[in-house]
């Protein structure tokens, strides 16, 4: 008999996530078709892709939620309901995927959790909160099992970055990371997509459209702090420069890594070729990543400007593995672990 996916059934946690745990490959579990699923932000770019994935996996018990102005419409044949605290807290959902802004997530997620729903949130609202897992299943999937009702889905660049760094870290340690991102406009939502499509090519421009504190953009802070939390390396030097580029889909990252121990480019290529969810190619092409579930990594070469340096180029579909798919895999991982054998909490070292 299907057991509802809620915090009462799956346990709780309240720790800071800086203990070292073994990285285990994501097993590719699939959610029980009987799971009652909600998608909040279903009419947005990520919400629509989430719905496509779930439908392809055979799910039919799905409800779509969005803002009041979308009520009465439909998405993929599902009538859109208004996302309110009352509707989401009614206790008739097992899993809810939130693809809305930070402010709205902070308002709505607690109500859903109080109703017994497992919430996977894709905003920045809970990512760096102590005790809330920030999960990439291929990197730190065990942490998802320690949730107290909320699991945070990382930033769309932190996901492919940590999937690339984690196997290198296991092989040779990490001394420092520098990254430059080239992020598509779909990361800013459907309005940004339509704005780009309405522009003349000569009007296209590079943008830095995040909040700015005078030194760093908010996106750069997110990438640094989320990478540290996911890898459980709170003191890892990470320097990021983020730029929005005039393409609709796909995020790319140029990554400079300095490892603790020497690692040749051939060794790095072999290691990454064995990493779950990663595909090594000679030159990762933007159009080669669109519509795929893998993180493409290539141009792997030694960096003579630093000791034990490597340079990589990473490309990922930001709406798929960079957002929707990662969130679904989190829920699949949790229900699979529950169905196979409920595990005790993993001891976690206290934060320094």
Q: What is the fold's blueprint, element by element?
A:
Elements: H1 7-10, E1 37-40, H2 45-56, E2 62-66, E3 74-75, E4 78-82, H3 85-88, E5 95-98, H4 102-114, E6 118-121, H5 137-140, E7 150-152, H6 158-172, E8 176-183, H7 190-197, H8 218-231, E9 238-244, E10 251-258, H9 265-273, E11 278-280, H10 286-289, E12 295-303, E13 309-316, H11 320-340
Helix pairs in contact: 2-11, 6-8
Protein described:
The protein has 352 residues and is of the alpha/beta class. It is built from eleven helices and 13 strands. The strands form two sheets. Strands 3-4-2-1-5-6-7 form a seven-stranded mixed β-sheet, with helices on both faces. The protein has a six-stranded mixed β-sheet with strand order 9-8-10-13-12-11. Helix 2 (45-56) links the parallel strand 1 and strand 2. Helix 2 crosses helix 11 and helix 6 (158-172) crosses helix 8. The longest helix is centred in the last third of the chain and has 21 residues, at 320-340. It is globular and about 60 Å long. It starts with 6 loop residues before the first helix and ends in a 12-residue tail after the last helix.
What would you say about this model in short?
The chain has eleven helices and 13 strands. The chain has 352 residues and is of the alpha/beta class. Helix 5 links the parallel strand 6 and strand 7.
